[in-house]
């Protein structure tokens, strides 16, 4: 069994890390390069950086933040926000991204996934899928959670896999920033639909929440608020997962210096 990946997330706006609840009421959470360096030192397996204003502003990801983070980071970096074209992906890879996440543009034009997968390889392409509970299951959201796509999460994930996505970053809009735990029903539904690696996002507050997501089928566990606010550290989370009998890489998670 492959090791679970613990993945801090940096939601970035105007060169600063921000965090809110359900994609709204964003508050400053720090400098992206400083947080990235801290999370790698704590044992993070990967990092995700999302430009949360790029899509609504109809622009690409701010490359300066990507470059600053890349300079202090040696672990894999996934970057998303405002990705619409092959040229956008090329710019992000040149700035230091290892993988690129696509969301709204892929919903609007699914052929984009085929094009990016054939050009850059499936290992480079992540589908960022935002969803919330709807009348009959979970519906896909686009444009930073502000618009409904008219798609069901599981069926869109299945199509994305067929078109060449190499991983799915699955975020529950309902749980984002709430600390109420991951949406396990959403996670299980998408897990049944695809064989791709699946990263759970939205709602983590305790190690028990991460354990539950792993047991529901997540391969990666993404969190933001609990790390930004120092509620816990990556190292403590990993040790908690290990105590629950789950496979994690502890060699990258140094013992915390504070009790």
- Discrete helix count: 10
Strand tally? 12
Major sheet strand order? 1-4-5-6-7-10-11-12
**Helix and strand sequence:** EEEHEHEHEHHEEEHEHEHEHH
Q: Helical proportion?
A: 25-40%
Word description of this protein:
With 259 residues, the chain is α/β, with parallel strands linked by helices. It has one domain (5-249): Aldolase class I (TIM Barrel, Alpha-Beta Barrel), CATH 3.20.20.70. It has 10 helices and 12 strands. It has an 8-stranded parallel β-barrel with strand order 1-4-5-6-7-10-11-12, surrounded by 8 helices. The longest helix is centred in the first third of the chain and has 11 residues, at 32-42. It is globular and about 45 Å long.
Structural key phrases:
globular; 259 residues; 35% helix; eight-stranded parallel barrel; TIM Barrel; 12 strands; 10 helices; alpha/beta
Give a topology summary.
Layout: E1 5-13, E2 16-21, E3 24-30, H1 32-42, E4 47-51, H2 63-72, E5 77-80, H3 86-95, E6 99-102, H4 104-108, H5 111-120, E7 125-134, E8 137-142, E9 147-152, H6 153-163, E10 167-172, H7 184-193, E11 198-201, H8 207-215, E12 220-223, H9 225-228, H10 234-243
Parallel strand pairs: 1-4, 1-12, 4-5, 5-6, 6-7, 7-10, 10-11, 11-12
Antiparallel strand pairs: 1-2, 2-3, 7-8, 8-9
Helix pairs in contact: 1-2, 6-7
Condensed summary:
The chain has helices spanning 32-42, 63-72, 86-95, 104-108, 111-120, 153-163, 184-193, 207-215, 225-228, 234-243, and strands at residues 5-13, 16-21, 24-30, 47-51, 77-80, 99-102, 125-134, 137-142, 147-152, 167-172, 198-201, 220-223. The chain is of the alpha/beta class and 259 residues long. It has one domain (5-249): TIM Barrel, CATH 3.20.20.70.
């Amino acid at each position: 069994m492959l090791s679970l990946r613990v993945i801090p997330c940096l939601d970035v706006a105007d060169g600063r890390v921000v965090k809110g609840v359900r994609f709204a009421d964003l508050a400053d959470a720090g400098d992206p390069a400083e947080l990235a360096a801290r999370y790698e030192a704590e044992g993070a397996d990967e990092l995700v950086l999302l430009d949360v204003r790029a899509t609504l502003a109809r622009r690409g990801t701010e490359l300066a933040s990507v470059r600053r983070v890349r300079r202090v980071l040696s672990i894999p970096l996934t970057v998303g926000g405002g990705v619409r074209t092959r040229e956008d992906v090329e710019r992000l890879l040149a700035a230091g991204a290892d993988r690129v996440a696509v969301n709204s543009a892929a919903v609007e034009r699914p052929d984009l996934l085929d094009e990016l997968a054939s050009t850059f390889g499936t290992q480079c392409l992540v589908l960022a899928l935002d969803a919330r509970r709807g009348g009959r299951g979970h519906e896909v959201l686009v444009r930073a959670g502000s618009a409904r796509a008219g798609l069901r999460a599981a069926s869109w994930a299945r199509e994305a896999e067929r078109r060449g996505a190499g991983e799915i970053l699955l975020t529950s809009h309902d749980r984002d920033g709430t600390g109420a735990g991951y949406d396990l029903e959403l996670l299980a539904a998408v897990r049944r639909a695809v064989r791709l690696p699946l990263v759970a996002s939205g709602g983590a507050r305790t190690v028990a929440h991460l354990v539950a997501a792993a047991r529901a089928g997540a391969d990666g566990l993404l969190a933001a608020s609990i790390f930004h606010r120092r509620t816990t550290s990556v190292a403590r989370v990993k040790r908690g997962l290990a105590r629950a009998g789950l496979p994690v890489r502890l060699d990258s998670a140094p013992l915390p210096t504070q009790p």
